[in-house]
Amino acid sequence: xxxxxxxxxxxxxxxxxxxxxxxxxxxxxxxxxxxxxxxxxxxxxxxxxxxxxxxxxxxxxxxxxxxxxxxxxxxxxxxxxxxxxxxxxxxxxxxxxxxxxxxxxxxxxxxxxxxxxxxxxxxxxxxxxxxxxxxxxxxxxxxxxxxxxxxxxxxxxxxxxxxxxxxxxxxxxxxxxxxxxxxxxxxxxxxxxxxxxxxxxxxxxxxxxxxxxxxxxxxxxxxxxxxxxxxxxxxxxxxxxxxxxxxxxxxxxxxxxxxxxxxxxxxxxxxxxxxxxxxxxxxxxxxxxxxxxxxxxxxxxxxxxxxxxxxxxxxxxxxxxxxxxxxxxxxxxxxxxxxxxxxxxxxxxxxxxxxxxxxxxxxxxx
Length: 366
Prior knowledge:
By secondary structure, this protein is an alpha/beta fold. It has two domains: 4-154, Rossmann fold (3-Layer(aba) Sandwich), CATH 3.40.50; 160-351, 3-Layer(aba) Sandwich (Rossmann fold). Helix content is 42%, strand content 14%. It has helices at residues 17-27, 55-68, 81-92, 103-106, 112-124, 133-140, 167-177, 197-207, 225-231, 252-261, 282-289, 302-305, 320-332, 334-351, 354-364; strands at 4-7, 34-37, 72-75, 96-99, 127-130, 151-153, 183-188, 214-219, 244-248, 264-267, 294-297, 312-315. The strands form two sheets. Strands 2-1-3-4-5-6 form a six-stranded parallel β-sheet, sandwiched between helices. Helix 2 (55-68) packs across helix 3 (81-92) and helix 7 crosses helix 10. It is elongated and about 70 Å long. The chain starts with a strand and ends with a helix. The mean pLDDT is 95.
């Protein structure tokens, strides 16, 4: 593997899925061959009122290339850091690989200048990685001919240690939410419009007439929570308002308990007009790790995370009747639900490990 420098504005202690993705990638590459430059002390993006914001990164990266004898740049953000890698390549001939996710590819395409710049950056890149077949197709609209063959899908993977839980802690959480003959439906994620929590609640209101014995737990926080709470004050949701539990954000050791106690994991995420979309959906794999069947919105990269009819169900995230029907199928047929959940668990352990996925990147870096 070539001596590589990862440049990224998303890396721990920054919190988020992209930061965790890069941390896991780095942890599974040879430590003597990979180093990381983050925005610590504004090394990449300046906080001063100057333009372009990435100006400090140009000098800092160039200096590091020379000092550490860097042979390859791994670019964490196509914009703006891809611009720096592209310009440095013209001067130093240092090859680079661009890593992409979802909205970083879809959103900038609304702006002609950014779209033009992305095309230039991708055309000069040695390779381009992304997190799903959906984002691969989005990239192909920016690339032509043989350049499209440069794309490699490197999936995000769940942390297998998430399955470690404290029995006593889980028993206490279970006693709080699980009642006799009551099934648990779970969602985990930031409470934002894209996740489709409102559609899930509407679907449960329809399902309630046929199957009233459930609690729906929402684990997470976000600005959309107030809208959901207001929604539950409407007459149409009066019958289920006491069954919707906003759990809030929980630590990892508690999160395992929620996955363990649920019967179905459901989150019908959708693509918004702003191009906000799920690039992949690692939370579905986390639920599968616990042997739980999942329901996901058929949008963005979720099709890669959920195998329809095998590890869960893909639903039209705008069709609340379809969401209700899928949920009902899993709740009323526990044998089928268990079979689907176990198939999901087997798939995760076989295909979605960091060792397996990072090996693909290490090959590109060689």
